[in-house]
Amino acid sequence: MTTRLRTRAILFDMDGTLVDSTAIVERVWGRFADEHGVSIVDILRSSHGVKAHDTIRKHAPHLIDVDAAAADLAAFEIEQTDGLIEIPGAARFVEQVPEGGYALVTSAPNALARMRLELCGIHSPSVVVAADDVINGKPHPEPYLTAAAALGLEPADCVVFEDAVAGIRSGLAAGMRVVVVGGVVDEVTEGLTRIVDYTNASIADADTSGFTIVFGG
């Protein structure tokens, strides 16, 4: 079965969508949990796709200086590269997207996001909306709306690729179509287009009006 989506831009999440950083995320949040006496299980259950500041506020409300805790987390995380891998086919697929038709919308800091893309051989776009670029992180629509505005596009012109519930809710709340990457299952994923990875995804029919995303076939 072949699925086709006509669009003017793809807005990608990063972790779990273009790169697999699971091992790093577990290592980083495990260190945080040990240092601050909180549950790593609870953190991992709700932190995916969410800004670090929001996760810290939720799971370590006793910390007075959230900014300092988030900065320490980010400094440690950017040093971690072992276990980082590309989602199969992601680099090839991104290379097919026409210039100006691709943005990154991530809950990671900007420098970390660009580094991870580079390490996985994935072309970094000119528009990156990172954790430090928005007031309200996912699942709020602000990150995806900010990216669309930076591209000069309306929400209906964009397709979001996401692997986390928070990000999926963000994309849908922004009025965009969403493609689920991976195996997350939630009431919000019902009826959405889903892919395991990018091995059977491609770009076709690119012209001044946009391009077509093709899955399968």
Quick recap:
This protein is an alpha/beta fold.
Chart the SSEs and their pairings.
Layout: E1 3-7, E2 9-12, E3 19-20, H1 22-36, H2 40-46, H3 52-59, H4 66-77, E4 85-86, H5 90-96, E5 102-105, H6 110-119, E6 127-129, H7 142-151, E7 158-162, H8 165-173, E8 177-181, E9 193-195, E10 201-207, E11 210-215
Parallel strand pairs: 2-5, 2-7, 5-6, 7-8, 8-9
Antiparallel strand pairs: 1-11, 3-4, 10-11
Could you characterize the architecture of this molecule?
The protein folds into two domains: 3-21 and 84-215, HAD superfamily/HAD-like (Rossmann fold, 3-Layer(aba) Sandwich), CATH 3.40.50.1000; 22-77, DNA polymerase, domain 1, CATH 1.10.150. The chain is 36% helix and 21% strand. It contains eight helices and eleven strands. The strands form three sheets. It has a six-stranded parallel sheet, covered by helices on one side. The protein is globular.
**Overall tally of structural domains:** 2
| Helix fraction by DSSP (H/I, runs of at least 4) | 25-40%
Low-confidence stretches: none
Give the spatial strand order of the biggest sheet.
6-5-2-7-8-9
Structural class: alpha/beta
> Beta fraction of the residues?
15-25%
Give the class-level CATH name of the largest domain. Answer: Alpha Beta
| Average pLDDT | 92
Helix tally equals 8
